[in-house]
Design a protein that fits this description.
single chain, alpha+beta, 5-stranded antiparallel sheet, 27% helix, 31% strand
């Protein structure tokens, strides 16, 4: 049975959280691992929404930390599907923060791309709906996701063949 296609906006999500002292590292800023956890959580929800069921993380790449997050900052994690294949999906995530002590524009904190795989009750890959980009930006993101996918597959093959990377 073929599932109907979905647009990126059908499953997009913004997750917001105030960072507190329990999230800090030895430098006194929010631990990068906490930001990664929020990224992975948001991506999982978006992939599950797109695929109508459970989805697991298969890869996280191109994660860039741009600015430190401080205690009291309100972190916003925006996630959306950029590409979908047979059972896998790419989710693009942008993290911003509202500084608690200043009325300044949001600060870009991090960006990441994750590959999520839809799984059935036995943990095996299952089909996902096709992605139907609507806007020019969504079509551009889809094309860029295909480039990242080809790169990941070529890297995986080179490593499996024992080639120097």
């Amino acid at each position: 049975m073929t599932q109907p296609g979905r647009t990126p906006s059908d499953s997009q999500l913004t997750l917001s959280q105030i960072m507190d002292q329990h999230h800090t590292n030895l430098m006194g800023t929010v631990h990068g691992g906490r930001i990664l956890n929020l990224i992975d959580s948001a991506a999982g929800v978006v992939a599950s929404r797109h695929s109508d069921g459970p989805a697991v993380s298969a890869a996280m790449d191109e994660t860039l930390f741009l600015k430190a997050v401080r205690v009291g900052d309100i972190v916003h994690v925006d996630a959306r599907i950029t590409w979908a294949g047979r059972s896998s999906m790419e989710v693009a995530v942008k993290v911003t923060a509202d500084r608690w002590d200043r009325a300044v524009p949001q600060v870009a904190v991090a960006t990441s791309h994750l590959v999520m795989v839809a799984v059935d009750e036995d943990g095996q890959p299952r089909p996902v709906p096709v992605l139907l980009p609507e806007t020019d930006e969504e079509h551009r993101a889809f094309g860029q996701a295909e480039i990242r996918r080809r790169h990941r597959l070529a890297l995986r093959q080179a490593l499996a063949e024992g080639a120097p990377v």
